[in-house]
């Protein structure tokens, strides 16, 4: 966990932009007759109408949730439109969603440093653009403020006395006596509203945004008012926001650390953390994490927006829930081959388009052992150097799987190979490629760079950048 640099964080303008019900919007753009109707995107599978992975805001009004199956959604709202995720190689094909995300990123990146954080969200560092606006054309002097900016939600702005909310926002943006930080945020409001309008115009997609002085606060804010709205966190409202915020809502505190804070320290809200001195938190959780916790309690986060439009890693995965768990080695190999084929295509495309190569291949799996008391044991993730070429990736991934399985079940004799391996089942599989770096400049040809490796299909691949695999799989952070 990064240790914050508090001195640098207060006067930055950071936005977190998150697309609204993203897969639904992509499908509705393809089929405009679905616009405005309760719609959900379902993951390919026959059981109870498939799993919902994206739900339109119209459908949410009927109580339809992502956790439902298609059939349940139909019961709740018979007129719901269910759209299947495209399928390729027997698994969800997310390339259309990835490409749609790339369209958005290319627009958002126009005004500042842009970090693509997932298939449908980005961080923007708009500090320079805001400083420039303050110098050249400060909002305080603007005669008219764009309608979209006036619809912003500014945390801490008192709208309770029945006053005109947009008028209050206008006054806030126009304040001459505001401190420098608020003036910068006022610029951020205008810039983000304009970018969001541009995204709508060029892609037909709506998005929501949070605007604050750091990534953590911007991310918290972007989800507060959806869809198609933006929320601003002025410095003076940070304490109020965090005081009552459940600790598990914080990024990185949804898991074990959050549970320990609740169970061991009695911390239920971020505000509860304020009572502990930094030393106490360091004693309990180590120097870095202790300092990080002390900082987030105060809304401090020095995490930089990384200038990264391309993914950090590529991943391809598939889940095999319940009765579809894979129980034979050949079945696992079959699916690994499919996943590796997709991964290989994406790697080749990245190489072709961006001149980047990946160095590490990792295999993740989830498994169960029915006959074992040690059923909590996790299937170990395994990595090896990545060799280009579909067949090589397939071979290496299979070897990684075998090594993982040996460790998982404690033994792995020849007698299990090819036959039913009673007692274990694989419920998810994924392969990912990471440590992606540009090819060293001066390399005269890709073939030469990969001397000794198969380069025959490098130029024949199509898919562009990468994105999340199927819904429930965990891939390394930065995998899109
Ligand atoms: N997604 C998925 N499986 C999940 C979660 C999400 O396949 N368990 C996909 C479908 C979503 C997209 O990722 O459309 C983005 O996920 P978000 O969590 O950002 O949710 P949405 O964009 O669908 O809705 P919201 O408007 O609430 O952000």
Automatic annotation (TrEMBL):
This is DNA polymerase eta. Its EC number is 2.7.7.7. One of its GO terms (cellular component) is site of double-strand break. It catalyses: DNA(n) + a 2'-deoxyribonucleoside 5'-triphosphate = DNA(n+1) + diphosphate. It is found in: Nucleus. The keyword Magnesium applies. It comes from Gossypium tomentosum (Hawaiian cotton). Transmembrane segments: none annotated. GO terms for biological process: DNA repair; error-prone translesion synthesis; response to UV. Its cofactor is Mn(2+); Mg(2+).
């Amino acid at each position: 966990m990064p240790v914050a640099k508090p001195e640098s964080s207060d006067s930055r303008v950071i936005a977190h932009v998150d697309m609204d019900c993203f897969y639904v919007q992509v499908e509705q753009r393809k089929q405009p007759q679905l616009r405005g109707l309760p719609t959900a995107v379902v993951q390919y599978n026959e059981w109870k109408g498939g799993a919902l992975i994206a739900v339109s805001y119209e459908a949410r009004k009927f109580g339809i949730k992502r956790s439902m199956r298609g059939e349940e959604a139909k019961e709740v709202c018979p007129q719901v439109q269910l759209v299947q995720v495209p399928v390729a190689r027997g698994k969800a094909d997310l390339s259309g969603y990835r490409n749609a995300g790339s369209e958005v990123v290319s627009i958002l990146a126009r005004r500042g440093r842009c970090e693509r954080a997932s298939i449908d969200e980005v961080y923007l560092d708009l500090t320079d653009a805001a400083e420039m606006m303050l110098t050249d054309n400060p909002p305080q002097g603007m005669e008219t403020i764009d309608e979209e900016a006036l619809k912003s939600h500014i945390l801490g702005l008192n709208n309770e006395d029945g006053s005109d909310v947009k008028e209050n926002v206008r006054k806030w943006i126009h304040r001459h006596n505001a401190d420098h930080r608020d003036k910068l945020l006022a610029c951020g409001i205008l810039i983000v509203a304009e970018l969001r309008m541009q995204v709508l115009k060029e892609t037909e997609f709506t998005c929501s945004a949070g605007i604050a002085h750091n990534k953590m606060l911007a991310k918290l804010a972007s989800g507060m008012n959806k869809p198609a709205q933006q929320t601003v966190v002025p410095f003076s409202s940070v304490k109020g926001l965090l005081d009552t915020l459940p600790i598990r809502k914080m990024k990185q505190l949804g898991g074990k650390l959050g549970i320990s804070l609740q169970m061991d320290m009695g911390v239920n809200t971020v505000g509860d953390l304020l009572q502990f001195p930094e030393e106490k938190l360091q004693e309990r959780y180590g120097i870095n994490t202790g300092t990080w916790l002390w900082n987030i309690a105060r809304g401090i986060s020095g995490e930089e927006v990384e200038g990264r439009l391309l993914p950090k890693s590529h991943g391809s995965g598939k889940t095999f829930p319940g009765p579809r768990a894979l129980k034979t080695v050949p079945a696992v190999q079959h699916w690994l081959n499919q996943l590796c084929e997709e991964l290989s295509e994406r790697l080749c495309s990245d190489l072709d388009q961006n001149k980047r190569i990946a160095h590490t291949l990792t295999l993740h799996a989830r498994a169960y052992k029915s006959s074992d008391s040690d059923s909590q044991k996790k299937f170990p993730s395994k990595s090896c150097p990545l060799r280009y070429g579909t067949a090589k990736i397939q071979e290496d991934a299979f070897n990684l799987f075998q090594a993982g399985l040996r460790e998982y079940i404690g033994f792995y004799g020849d007698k299990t190979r090819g036959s039913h391996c009673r007692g274990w089942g694989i419920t998810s599989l994924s392969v990912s490629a990471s440590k992606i770096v540009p090819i060293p400049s001066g390399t005269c040809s890709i073939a030469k760079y990969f001397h000794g490796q198969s380069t025959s299909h490098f130029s024949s691949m199509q898919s562009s950048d990468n994105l999340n695999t199927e819904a429930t799989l965990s891939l390394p952070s930065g995998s899109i």
